[in-house]
Prior knowledge:
CATH superfamily of the largest domain: DNA ligase/mRNA capping enzyme
CATH architecture of the largest domain: 2-Layer Sandwich
Radius of gyration: 30 Å
Distance between the termini: 61 Å
Number of domains: 5
CATH topology of the largest domain: D-amino Acid Aminotransferase, Chain A, domain 1
Low-confidence stretches: none
Number of helices: 24
Amino acid sequence: MDPASRVEELRRLIEHHTERYYVLDDPEVSDAEFDGLVRELRSLEEAHPDLRTAGSPTEKVGGRASTAFAEVRHRQPMMSLDNAFSFDELVAWGKRMERYVSGQVDYVCELKIDGIACSLLYEDGRYVRGATRGNGVVGEDVTENVRTISVIPDRLTGEPPATLEVRGEIYMPASAFEELNQRQGEAGLRLFANPRNSGAGSLRQKDPKVTASRDLRFWAYQLGEIEGGPKFRRHSETLEFLKAAGLPVNPEVRTVGSLDEVFAYCDNWLEHRHDLDYEIDGVVVKVDDLAQREELGSTSKSPRWAIAFKYPPEEATTLLKDIMVSIGRTGKATPFAQLEPVKVSGSTVQLATLHNQDQVRVKDVRPGDTVTVRKAGDVIPEVVAPVLSKRPAGLPEWQFPATCPVCDGPLVRTEGESDTFCINVDCPAQLAGRVGHFASRGAMDIEGLGEKRVMQLTAAGLLADPGDIYGLTYEALMGLEGFADISARNLLDAIEASKARPLPSLLIGLSIRHLGGRGAEVLADAFGSLDRILDASEEEMATTAGVGPVIARSVSEFFALDRNRAVVDKLRAAGVNFQGAERSTLPPTLAGKAVVVTGTLESMSRERAVEAVKARGGASPGSVSKKTAYVVAGAEPGAAKITKAEACGVPVIDEAAFLRLLETGGTEPPGETA
Length: 674
């Protein structure tokens, strides 16, 4: 396609997607795909200046204001930001600035909240108007809807200026989004795709009562206009002023002195973005000095003194080719999507979970749909929602199968439960799943016995249950494809070493329904051996603190089956450890206290540090909260945990102080903080 035709096509596509995103709150493509279209258009316009026009999307801000609301003309334009997608592009932006200003440049780094840009106007300290960004010049009047957002003050504190306009982002917290979708699902209504779209839709309701029923929040990030108030030299000073006036300002804002520090900030929050209860899609970097901003000026749509460093996309749209069903080790039948391969969060995704039968129904995804796929960090990819505007006419609903796709046995759903199960315990998929789980790192940790090896050994008839693992011989392995002397001996050595694994690991490996890591630890600690658990009644287990009736019933029913007792007999004959750890004789110096360990300690591993806390009666959760007593910071601690500790007023102590804490439990001062 020639450049002129491609430019016209790109402009048409961008205008279409802009309308769906900004006006209809119903996008058909991901942010990354949209950014890619804009970048391609800008590149073509730069290569062919004769094709550039004043009305091009590259010269516009946002989208038009919806006709559903009255128009508001902004006192000062609400501009958009240019984007950087790599450190090289960030450095290139910094070098461009050097042509306009001299001297030291300080930068303010702010998390780029994935929400809806909004302008708030205060007169004599009283809130009088709220407006969306719209096209940057004209926005929508959402005054009464904004008034329902509890974190936005109706009256400013202190001595407010005669006029104050503040810009910021309205968003829906991740936890509120999950609760909203849970209510939608329970009511049989279609789920919202993501917090950004549900937040935008909630803000732009004709009835403010609907907005009030949704948990929306706000972060102020920019002073728009001020009359009759103090003068400022720096952007960071304006943020402190807004905070003092009672407006919420994000606590993660940082002022730094170099682009290397900017990138370190960006890199840190890329790693810890999911520690937050709100979604971010990057970092906004701004020049702090307001005089330097004046020197830098702006283009027709973007300030030269700010840029958005964008993170890799966590959502993309692609074709849903088919919906299949997998059978797990407990017989649970889980629907999953076969997708046209698509790049999400840095990796290519071809399969994504659909969770269960109800989720498929509520999301109403169908083979042949264009769907939104999400992959957040290391989380399993999932299908979020269909793009209904792209659904082919007459596309039939998907029906959950009545029989197991592996063994052809019946699939049964217990009344009151969301999951469906294959009830044939001899189903090959269940068998392979149970053996694989038994050998997994979280259970007996048998290196070399992964999914492919398990499938090979079960297909060869060498494994019928986890107990058969300990009957494998060198001769049997050497008769199989892919095994040589070293690999066979390594696997047998790993199997032998697994016999010494602790009792909780063995309990986890047995695939007892409802029994997780914490329940296994409690049972092992309370009864001391597998034999005592086998002899215990359901009532005895149910009255054990931390177990309860559901786990007790499940454990009791599991060991009542002859086939499971036969597995236990094989494990006993093989010499697998059935004994729990000896009860700690250490004084419970940390009873009732939560101690979070982060970073690397010199005197012990992090796992041993956690065990040391638990041996003294304490708890060692993976996250920091206001209930945390101490945070132990070793070398290279998690920045998010330290930041959260500071915000919650939790003491952060070093390794030496931690060792004293283990002895005293905090009855004496633990020492210097880290």
